[in-house]
Design a protein that fits this description.
198 residues; alpha/beta
Length: 198
């Protein structure tokens, strides 16, 4: 059986937490994926050989600084010329955009124009999905990352509020997993003609 190769960017700009959640999401989804880390050195010096290239959360200026123009052009050519597939989440989505507004007048302003939070688009022979939403975040893993002890035994109000939020995420986790699976299936289908990719 042929395993599809998924490469997840991990270099300057990558949030360690986002990387862990994205890798975990693919591992949970199916054992049919070979998941590899990719960095700016590989992108700048080799042809990208992957069924899906993923950039998760972090900060896109870090991506730009490490990849430089040559790495960005290699990613562009991988998608456009080589039928590449790209998944960008949060900073990975901003990184793939021509234009982005985010924190115009501080702190962390979002300019709401009614556009969807998750979009799909074609680029030449390839395509991508860009998401402002962190649909890769696993509430069970997040809980382990945030708390070293049982949060119910901690009198901190913020911690208790976070715990309530995570419990809500757990309640809806099956929907999150279905969304992730659906989006990845759309991306990895070589004959994709879905409305998402038009």
């Amino acid at each position: 059986m042929v395993h599809k190769q998924i490469q997840i960017y991990k270099d300057l700009g990558t949030s360690e937490r986002c990387y862990i959640h994205l890798k975990n999401a693919f591992q949970y989804l199916t054992p049919l994926y070979k998941i590899e880390e990719i960095n700016s050195t590989i992108i700048n010096n080799q042809n990208i050989q992957s069924n899906l290239l993923c950039f998760g959360g972090g900060y896109d200026l870090g991506y730009l600084n490490s990849l430089q123009l040559s790495g960005c052009l290699n990613i562009h050519n991988y998608i456009k010329e080589n039928m590449g597939r790209y998944l960008g989440i949060c900073a990975g989505a901003y990184f793939a955009c021509d234009y982005c507004c985010f924190d115009m007048n501080g702190p962390l302003e979002v300019s709401d124009n009614g556009k969807p939070a998750i979009i799909g688009s074609k680029l030449g022979n390839g395509c991508g999905i860009l998401s402002g939403v962190h649909f890769e975040y696993d509430p069970y893993l997040l809980e382990k990352q945030i708390y070293n002890v049982d949060p119910k035994n901690n009198g901190n109000v913020d911690v208790i509020n976070n715990y309530a939020f995570i419990e809500t995420l757990k309640t809806n986790n099956s929907s999150r997993l279905k969304l992730f699976e659906t989006l990845i299936t759309l991306l990895l289908n070589p004959d994709n003609e879905s409305v998402l990719m038009k």
